[in-house]
Amino acid sequence: MNYWLVKSEPEKYAWTDLQRDGETTWDGVRNFQARNNLQQMKEGDLVMYYHSVSEKSIVGVAKVSKEAYPDPTANEPRWLAVSLVPEQAFAQPVSLDQIKKEERLQNIALLRQSRLSVMPLSPEEFEILLRMGQ
């Protein structure tokens, strides 16, 4: 199993929207590195859901329910999407400030490539974040 983090502005598509909908198409990614990460996602992989811009915190865990397929919002076939379902909400959001202060997370992609919308997490990073959110 692989672990990931995806970022969404809560004003555009919040964790509560995913919970309400039960499943979503993760589309609209127009960065090659993020697209390559989408392409590597496998059904069953777990995904941290990060509210960017206004909240800057991880709020839950989703699961990949459908592996990469052509992005229905794209005019070119090179862009991809995956489907996500909600797995569990965090009892306590994990803020960017908390992540920055956690010594074991100093190499996390969220801090090194802050503009990337889809990024891998190591199993250790995932477990640390999961514990922080519970």
TrEMBL record:
Gene3D superfamilies: ph1033 like domains
Limits of the EVE domain: 2-132
Record-linked InterPro entries: 5hmC_binding, EVE_domain, PUA-like_sf, THYN1-like_EVE
Protein name: EVE domain-containing protein
Highest classification ranks of the organism: Bacteria, Pseudomonadati, Bacteroidota, Cytophagia, Cytophagales
